């Protein structure tokens, strides 16, 4: 089933995207310096990961537990 039709899979993809964009921005900041266009979407995901990092971490941890146990 596609990640678009399964809410649990959709949340997993979104959390992994936010975490990946944040990691890339911390390691290679020049890659995500454009704030508009298609690359702007990844800049915004990295910004969410930077500003809401405790909540994103809790979301990743709880998503990992739910994948393992359910």
TrEMBL record:
<keyword id="KW-0812">Transmembrane</keyword>
<feature type="transmembrane region" description="Helical">
    <location>
        <begin position="52"/>
        <end position="69"/>
    </location>
</feature>
<keyword id="KW-0732">Signal</keyword>
<protein>
    <recommendedName>
        <fullName>Protein kish</fullName>
    </recommendedName>
</protein>
<keyword id="KW-0333">Golgi apparatus</keyword>
<comment type="function">
    <text>Involved in the early part of the secretory pathway.</text>
</comment>
<dbReference type="Pfam" id="PF06842">
    <property type="entry name" value="DUF1242"/>
</dbReference>
<dbReference type="InterPro" id="IPR051523">
    <property type="entry name" value="KISH_domain"/>
</dbReference>
<comment type="similarity">
    <text>Belongs to the KISH family.</text>
</comment>
<dbReference type="InterPro" id="IPR009653">
    <property type="entry name" value="Ksh1"/>
</dbReference>
<feature type="transmembrane region" description="Helical">
    <location>
        <begin position="6"/>
        <end position="24"/>
    </location>
</feature>
<dbReference type="GO" id="GO:0000139">
    <property type="term" value="C:Golgi membrane"/>
</dbReference>
<keyword id="KW-1133">Transmembrane helix</keyword>
<keyword id="KW-0472">Membrane</keyword>
């Amino acid at each position: 089933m596609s990640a678009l039709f399964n809410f649990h899979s959709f949340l997993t993809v979104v959390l992994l995207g936010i975490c990946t964009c944040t990691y890339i921005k911390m390691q290679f900041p020049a890659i995500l310096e454009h704030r508009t266009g298609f690359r702007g979407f990844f800049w915004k995901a990295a910004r969410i990961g930077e500003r809401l990092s405790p909540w994103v971490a809790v979301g990743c941890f709880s998503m990992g537990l739910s994948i393992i146990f359910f």
